[in-house]
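SECTION: protein entry
WANTED: fold as tokens:
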Amino acid sequence: MATIKLASSLQPLVGFGLWKVPNADAADTVYNALKAGYRLLDAAADYGNEKECGQGLARAIKDGVVTREEVFLVSKLWNTNHAYEHVKPACEKSLKDWGVDYFDLYLIHFPVSLAYVDPKERYPPAWWDATGPGGKVTLSKDPMSATWKAMEELREAGLAKSIGISNCSGSLIVDLLRSAKHKPEVLQIEHHPYLTQEPLIKFAKEIGLAITAYSSFGPQSFLELEHAGALDTPSLLEHPTIKAIADAHSKSPAQVLLRWSTQRGIAVIPKSNNPERAKQNLEHVNFDLTEDEIKQISALNKNLRFNNPADIHPELAIFA
């Protein structure tokens, strides 16, 4: 499997995303993904399914499908744990839920500090207070530099082999680098032909920051959430440009969308509950797009972002 070289490990270029995997299905989903050949699992505390996902990993290890060392396991620090003293306990809880001793990569999920929520009170805590969506969003004053210092200590303690960030703009990354002892190794971002983020990607490559794309199928990833923007946006899987390129290579539109990223050195973490599609997603690296085809796909950019915290609250406008 193709990989991306990080400072302390090799990250698979293709992984399996665990966002929106129901708890009841999570163990089987992880087990089947590993059995299908996936070796990167992308998780997060916020997904609320790490314990069940860990059961699937444990079963796969027990059955000899994989060893722990063969799996590149990713998790993420949630916004309510940005205070320096809460970072390590948050990581340790995720590790315990997974039943492992270390993460291969641990990311700051969003550059947003929210008021601390005790896991015994509510877990995962989400964006809002106990009233749920539409309720109160309570920010904290914990600076990113303090959060990153705690992340660096996770790396030094061996709880995370590599550390990184997600959903961060270039200006914030520049500021973070000013005080960082260990620079972030990976930046995970929303990335698809409707949101190409070319300046950010060029910047990341210039400073040696590896990119992982999420929501590679654009609006498709948000339909089950009944996201208004996604519901009103033409599907990339049905777009004439994507379908024509797919037909030219005898590939699926999903494979074309994924190859558009990976051929440019950007890792992807698609999820599919369909075994055949999951297999196709994993095997999409077995062909190459032409330079002109890549340009055609990139030309579909609309700067259209679906995962925007500003939709939750104006003070969360991190991409403004």
